[in-house]
UniProtKB/TrEMBL annotation:
It catalyses: L-proline + a quinone = (S)-1-pyrroline-5-carboxylate + a quinol + H(+). Pathway: Amino-acid degradation; L-proline degradation into L-glutamate; L-glutamate from L-proline: step 1/2. Keywords: FAD, Flavoprotein, Nucleotide-binding, Oxidoreductase, Proline metabolism. It comes from Pseudomonas brassicae. This is proline dehydrogenase. Substrate binds at residues 91, 283-284. GO terms for molecular function: nucleotide binding; proline dehydrogenase activity. It holds the Pfam family Pro_dh. Residues 37-295 form the Proline dehydrogenase domain. The keyword Nucleotide-binding applies. It comes from the Bacteria.
C-alpha cells in the first residue's frame, strides 16, 4: 500500500485541478473570509483556538504583496469584530520576500503592528530552505520592537539546532514542526528523507531546549507518539500548560486532536482559506497516508 501511496503522490502534478480541489476541501475553510469566520466560530465553540492563514505564497509583484497585507488586515479586523479566539500565520514569500526584502519587512511590520493594536499575535510560517535565513532575519528584526510575533522552525533541517540556540537567547515564541518541503538530503537530519519518525528525536531535542530556555512552544504535529513524548517531557521538566500548546492542521487527524484537547491541553487549529489553494492542497495530499485510495476513488468518480 505504501508503494501505491508513493506512486499516487508522484502523480499529483498530473491530476486535474478539479479533483485536487475536491479532495482538499477538508483541509481548507473555504474561498472567502466569511467562510473562514464561520469555521473559526465552530472550532472555538468546540474548545479550539485557531491560527488563520490566507492561502498564497511566492507572489511576483509588489502589488500582489500589498494585496496580501491588506487581506491580513481584513482578517485581523474580522477576528476583532467577531471576538474570535484566533491569531494569524503569514508566509513571507506572499509578502514579496523573494523579490523585495525591504517591502516584505515593511508589510510584515504593518501586519504585526495591526495585530498588536487588537491584542493579537502573528506567527511567521517557515518555507523552503532558500527562505530559512531570510525568514529568521525577518523574525529577528520584527521581534526587536514587537512581542507579538513568533516563528516556525523545522526539525527535519540539520541547521535548526543552531537556529534554536540563537533564537532562544531571549525567550521567544516558536512553533516546532517536522517540515513539509522537499529538500535535498544534505540539509536533512539522518533518515528524514525516507522516514518521518526519524525526525522525532530532533523535534524533541528542540522542544526540550525551548522549554529549558523559557520560550513558548507551539508543538505542531499529528504524530501521536511524539505528542506523548512532549507531554512526558513537560512533566519531567515541570513545564506548565501555559508554556506550550499543540497545533494541528484543519482536517487532519481529528480524533487525535479531540483526544489531546480532552486531556486539558490547549490545541490550536491552523485554518487556511482563500482562492490560492493549489500549493497548500498538494502538500497536504502528499502527506495523507490514505492518498492512494482517495485519489483512485476520485479518479473513477466514486
Ligand atoms: C499547525 C501547523 C503548522 C505548520 N507549519 C509549518 C511551517 O511553517 N513550515 C513547514 O515546513 N511545515 C509546517 N507544518 C507541516 C509540518 O511540518 C508537517 O509536514 C505536518 O504536520 C505533518 O507532519 P507530522 O508532524 O504531523 O508528522 P508525520 O510523521 O508526517 O505524520 C504523523 C501522522 O499524521 C497523519 N497525517 C499527517 N499529515 C496528514 C494529512 N495531510 N492527511 C491525513 N493524515 C495526515 C498521518 O497519519 C501520519 O502518520 C505545520 C504543521 C502544523 C500542524
Amino acid at each position: 500500500m505504501q508503494f501505491f501511496n508513493v506512486l499516487m503522490a508522484r502523480a499529483i502534478p498530473f491530476v486535474p485541478r478539479a479533483i485536487i480541489q475536491k479532495l482538499s476541501r477538508r483541509y481548507i475553510a473555504g474561498a472567502t473570509l466569511g467562510e473562514a469566520v464561520a469555521r473559526v466560530k465552530q472550532l472555538n465553540a468546540q474548545g479550539f483556538c485557531v491560527t488563520l492563514d490566507v492561502l498564497g505564497e511566492a507572489v511576483c509583484t509588489p502589488h500582489q504583496a500589498e494585496q496580501t497585507a491588506l487581506d491580513y488586515m481584513q482578517v485581523l479586523e474580522a477576528i476583532r469584530a467577531n471576538q474570535l479566539d484566533a491569531s494569524i500565520s503569514i508566509k513571507p514569500t506572499s509578502l514579496g520576500l523573494l523579490f523585495d526584502r525591504q517591502q516584505c519587512e515593511r508589510l510584515a511590520e504593518r501586519i504585526v503592528e495591526a495585530a498588536e493594536g487588537c491584542n493579537n499575535a502573528v506567527c511567521i510560517d517557515m518555507e523552503d530552505v532558500h527562505c530559512t535565513t531570510k525568514e529568521i532575519d525577518l523574525f529577528t528584526r520584527l521581534r526587536t520592537d514587537h512581542d507579538n510575533v513568533g516563528l516556525a522552525l523545522q526539525a527535519y533541517l540539520k541547521r535548526t539546532y543552531e537556529d534554536v540556540q540563537l533564537l532562544t537567547r531571549k525567550p521567544a515564541t516558536l512553533r516546532i514542526c517536522k517540515g513539509i518541503y522537499v529538500e535535498e538530503r544534505s540539509h536533512l537530519v539522518n533518515g528524514a528523507w525516507h522516514d518521518r519518525s526519524a525526525i522525532n528525536t530532533h523535534f524533541l531535542a528542540h522542544v526540550r531546549h525551548c522549554f529549558s530556555a523559557g520560550s513558548f512552544v507551539a508543538v505542531a504535529t499529528h504524530d501521536g507518539v511524539l505528542i506523548e513524548h512532549v507531554i512526558a517531557l513537560a512533566q519531567e521538566l515541570g513545564i506548565g500548560t501555559r508554556q506550550f500548546e499543540f497545533q494541528m492542521l484543519l482536517g487532519v487527524c481529528e480524533p487525535l486532536r479531540d483526544k489531546v484537547s480532552s486531556m486539558g491541553f490547549s490545541v490550536r487549529i491552523y485554518v487556511p482559506f482563500g482562492s490560492d489553494w493549489y500549493g497548500y492542497s498538494t502538500r497536504r495530499l502528499n502527506e495523507n497516508p490514505a492518498i492512494a485510495g482517495h485519489l483512485a476513488r476520485a479518479l473513477v468518480g466514486l
